[in-house]
Specification:
- This protein is α+β, with helices and mostly antiparallel strands and 565 residues long.
- Helices cover 49% and strands 22% of the residues.
- The strands form 4 sheets. Strands 1, 2, 3, 4, 5, 6 and 7 form a 7-stranded antiparallel beta sheet that branches. Strands 9-8-12-11-10 form a 5-stranded antiparallel beta sheet, sandwiched between helices.
């Protein structure tokens, strides 16, 4: 029995010894990650970029007692190759390299998760030449992921000896994997931004427009493209030193409203303005300036970007085109007057006949024929004055209509322009035994317009409407003119009861040289369209439900907002 007790005591002693050893190992395993973390964290805390990866690999190798350490990235999403960012061998940073993942423990890491091979790693991956050449016995690696969970690369350490505490090695790698992945993504973001800014710079420096960037945090202009010198004729440094000098270049007639606008606007507001500048030599240029806020992913505005374009040639071309269009419109008015003269002559003859009759009567009275009272003479003289006034008004109306004078825009009542235009075609309507009905808005419809040009549009539409009804019985020859105030602006409608037009013709009505008349030139409606669009309005035609066509045009009201089709 004594022998059995001695054997039992011996076994108990062995178990206690084994237990103490395990406790000691567990304590070491618990302490080692903390020691590794402290040493590695202290070594890489202030580093970024490539230096961070080199320090991380070196400190991990030193702290974990490994001969080799690596930080690598996959060469492309889904790629089967890795490019090292840092590679340490026996305490020294060695040149980076690229290798295939197939047949290596790194392939398992990148594809899955933490992999630990405490010993005999060469037996598991016999096709990996590095394991053989470097005489690697143990391997530990953990993958790196993007914030979106996509594989980035890996961190791994390798040793010529078996790992004494593989769990501690794995824990240390996993902790620093988060920091390494974050640094890779930060580096890629910085590189992407750098590339983006470089592309922006290359574009900005090779176009005619001026690009600029204002840093809202630093409150300074951080970039101004060289095109500034070509447009402003001032050096870039002159504006970079004090951006408010830009206001000094604004034309004196525009400076007050530009200055007032920028003093009261919100920095984050998108702006679009056209103004003039004056160069040092006195030359005036037109500038189209735009700006918009640049925000970070959180929505915070940190920059203001802008572009300034020299639109002088464009504006001058538009003004020239407008002048040519007005000249063409004048020619069209003269052409139409040739057709109206014969009928208007009858209208002028009426007051001339009255003048002749009463002048003869006064002459007879003054020669002593008959007994006339002074009151009679005064009455006849008043009639002569009235007739002369009517004749003068007809001639004034005609002279104004054919005048080639400047297209001055003034406030005008559209209802009054309609009535005056109807007077110009009154004789034609009487000769054709047609009726013009008015359905005008009760209140004045005030527009800012070239009154003569708008009358030209109305006369053209009225004459077209009258000619469209020539094959209809006289009782059905009715033109209706309506005016109204609409949400779009001020609208006029000229409706006829003619034969109408098919959809193909309606689509081409405003095309130059298209006409539905046997002897038409096809320019009248094209000129009407040019005039209306020059007034920031629009014109269109549509078939009536029964017979004929209605032409509509709409102009901005006195508030002045442009109308878009």
């Amino acid at each position: 029995m004594a022998s059995d007790r001695q054997k039992s005591a011996a076994r108990l002693q062995e178990e206690l010894t084994a237990l103490r050893k395990r406790v000691a190992e567990l304590e070491l395993a618990t302490q080692q990650p903390a020691t590794v973390l402290q040493a590695t964290a202290a070594g890489v805390s202030a580093a970024t970029g490539d230096e961070f990866f080199r320090l991380l690999a070196r400190h991990l190798a030193d702290s974990l007692g490994c001969e080799y350490a690596e930080v690598g990235v996959v060469t492309a999403p889904g790629a089967r190759r890795v490019r090292t960012l840092a590679l340490v061998s026996h305490g020294k940073v060695v040149p980076n390299l690229e290798y295939d993942l197939e047949g290596t423990p790194c392939h398992t890491v990148v594809s899955h998760a933490l992999c630990l091979y405490p010993d005999r790693v060469q037996e598991r991956f016999p096709r990996d030449p590095f394991l053989v050449d470097w005489q690697v016995e143990s391997y530990a690696g953990t993958p790196l992921f993007t914030a979106a969970g996509e594989p980035l690369g890996l961190i791994c350490v390798m040793s010529k000896r078996p790992f004494a505490e593989p769990a501690a090695v794995g824990a240390a790698l996993q902790i620093f994997a988060v920091r390494a992945a974050g640094e890779i993504e930060r580096q890629r973001t910085v590189e992407s931004l750098r590339s983006s800014e470089e592309r922006f710079r290359q574009i900005a420096e090779n176009v005619r427009d001026v690009f600029w960037l204002y840093d809202f945090d630093q409150q300074r202009l951080v970039y101004l493209s060289p095109a500034c010198e070509a447009i402003w004729h001032r050096p870039v440094e002159w504006l970079l030193a004090d951006p408010r000098r830009w206001l000094e270049t604004i034309h004196e007639d525009d400076r007050s409203w530009i200055t007032a606008f920028y003093e009261q606007d919100q920095p984050g507001m998108t702006l679009d303005q056209t103004y003039r500048i004056r160069r040092p030599d006195g030359t005036i240029r037109w500038i189209h300036g735009r700006r918009f806020p640049v925000r970070d992913p959180s929505g915070r505005m940190y920059r203001i970007a802008g572009v300034a374009e020299d639109v002088t040639e464009r504006i001058e071309a538009a003004e020239k085109l407008h002048t040519q269009a007005m000249q063409l419109a004048h020619v069209a008015r003269l052409s139409s007057m040739g057709e109206l003269v014969a009928s208007i002559a009858h209208e002028v003859n009426q007051p001339l006949h009255v003048i002749t009759v009463f002048a003869s009567t006064i002459a007879a009275a003054l020669s002593g024929e008959g007994q006339w009272q002074p009151a009679d003479l005064q009455k006849w003289n008043d009639e002569i004055a009235k007739a002369a006034g009517r004749a003068a008004e007809i001639i004034r109306r005609l002279r104004t209509y054919v005048s080639p004078g400047p297209a001055a825009r003034t406030e005008a009542d559209l209802n009054a322009l309609v009535k005056e235009s109807i007077e110009l075609v009154a004789v034609q309507s009487r000769q054709q035994r047609a009726m013009v009905k008015l359905d005008l808005a009760r209140s004045p419809l005030v527009v800012e317009a070239d009154a003569v040009a708008i009358e030209q549009v109305l006369v053209n539409l009225l004459r077209n409407a009258l000619e469209a009804m020539l094959d209809r019985p006289p009782a059905e020859r009715i033109v209706t003119v309506r005016t109204a105030s609409t949400p779009e602006g001020v609208e006029v409608a000229v409706q006829d009861a003619g034969t109408g037009l098919d959809h193909a013709a309606l689509d081409r009505l405003f095309t130059p040289f298209f006409t539905s008349k046997p002897k038409g030139m096809g320019m009248g409606l094209a000129i009407c369209k040019t005039i209306i669009e020059a007034h920031r309005g629009r014109i269109w035609a549509s078939p009536n439900s029964e017979r004929g066509v209605t032409f509509n045009f709409v102009l901005p009201g006195r508030s002045g907002h442009a109308i878009h089709p």
